[in-house]
From TrEMBL:
This is Transcriptional regulator. InterPro entries: CggR_N, NagB/RpiA_transferase-like, SorC_transcr_regulators, Sugar-bd_dom_put, WH-like_DNA-bd_sf, WH_DNA-bd_sf. Residues 18-88 form the CggR N-terminal DNA binding domain. It comes from Weizmannia acidilactici. The lineage of its organism: Bacteria, Bacillati, Bacillota, Bacilli, Bacillales. Keywords: DNA-binding, Transcription, Transcription regulation. One of its GO terms (molecular function) is carbohydrate binding. It comes from the Bacteria. The keyword Zinc-finger does not apply.
Length: 342
């Protein structure tokens, strides 16, 4: 396929450009259907006049339906999207980007999805779908899956389906306590949703994400909490996001003294309560209940899911401390920025 694509690039470059544009339109409709033409044009950064012609073509090919409620993809269109996926990754250079990212970050496996989730909200759904696919590939026997909170993990939950695995083989546990954010993005809520969508089971961890040393000693010895913490340590799979340092510190309502430490330490990234500078050094750590960074090397499969050009520094910083079993799932926006500063 690669040789054919190279020939097309040289002899018929316009055809590849048109194919990419129509693929992007189809893909965007499939993520947010039903959608109006004006909204789709804004989402794609395309004029309504240009989009109108493309939409008519796709309709005539029976790839989309147009109704008063908006445009939606047909069964034929969905099938074509699936068939085109590997070819479009080759055409767009994503496969090559993945290889470069592996070398730059010292990873054995990287997944890059098209787009930039900072600018295109639907890309986060694609990150979720890519993560769900990779998790399914490593499931074996009974599985305990530990999950952190955040909107990206919520997107992973949305991508899970009832045919994910035998229900009795899945147990979802929160990797740590809540962070005081929207309930829908807390680890407990996400675990419950994952269990509901797959038919699996879940456990809850009703503790704050950040506690004082005194409270920590008291809470971790509570029988119900101790039981869940034991399950978390036994997880074969961990799903987690990577945050920007200052954003995460603000979400935690970090005190003035600790915030100053994070700023003075030039922290750019955060994961599991650890704040990293660009060299990957830990400049601050909060006392959290749940999975710790030192636990990760003992986990069989660790999936780090984060996208958006703005998170490039955070992702790169965390990868200096990542365990060997880490698989990074990110988007083009973040990937290009990471490679640009490598």
């Amino acid at each position: 396929m690669r040789s054919l694509i190279e020939v097309q690039r040289k002899l018929l470059p316009d055809i590849l450009a048109v194919m990419q544009k129509r693929y992007q339109i189809l893909r965007s409709i499939s993520f947010v259907e039903p959608i109006g033409r004006r909204t789709l044009a804004q989402m794609l950064g395309m004029s309504e006049r240009v989009l109108r012609g493309e939409v008519e073509f796709l309709k005539n090919q029976k790839l989309i339906d147009i109704k008063p409620s908006g445009m939606s993809i047909t069964k034929m269109g969905a099938g074509l999207l699936q068939d085109l996926e590997s070819m479009m990754r080759e055409i767009s250079g994503i496969n090559e980007t993945e290889e470069k990212l592996k070398k730059a970050l010292g990873l054995e496996d990287v997944v890059v999805v098209p787009g930039n989730s900072d600018e295109e909200p639907w890309v986060k759904s694609e990150l979720g779908r890519a993560c769900a696919y990779r998790i399914k590939a490593v499931l074996m026997g009974n599985n305990i899956i530990a999950v952190t909170g955040g909107s990206t993990m919520a997107a992973v939950a949305d991508a899970l389906t009832p045919d994910f695995s035998a229900p009795e083989q899945l147990l979802f546990v929160p990797a740590r306590g809540g962070i005081g954010e929207d309930v829908q993005n807390q680890a407990n809520t996400i675990c419950a949703k994952m269990a509901e969508r797959t038919g699996g089971k879940h456990r809850v961890l009703y503790v704050p994400d950040q506690v004082s040393p005194e409270v920590y000693k008291s809470v971790v010895n509570e029988p119900s909490i101790k039981e869940v913490l034991t399950l978390i340590k036994q997880a074969e799979i961990v799903l987690h996001g990577i945050g920007e340092a200052i954003t995460m510190a603000k979400r935690r309502k970090t005190g003035k003294e600790e915030m100053e430490k994070i700023i003075q330490g030039h922290a750019v990234g955060e994961a599991f309560g650890y704040y990293f500078n660009e060299q990957g050094e830990v400049v601050h750590k909060v006392q959290t209940i749940g999975l710790q960074l030192e636990d990760l090397p003992y986990i069989l499969h660790v999936f780090a899911v984060a996208g958006g050009a703005s998170k490039a520094k955070a992702i790169k910083a965390y990868m200096n401390s990542k365990p060997k079993s880490t698989v990074l799932i990110t988007d083009e926006g973040a990937a290009k920025n990471i490679l640009a500063c490598s």
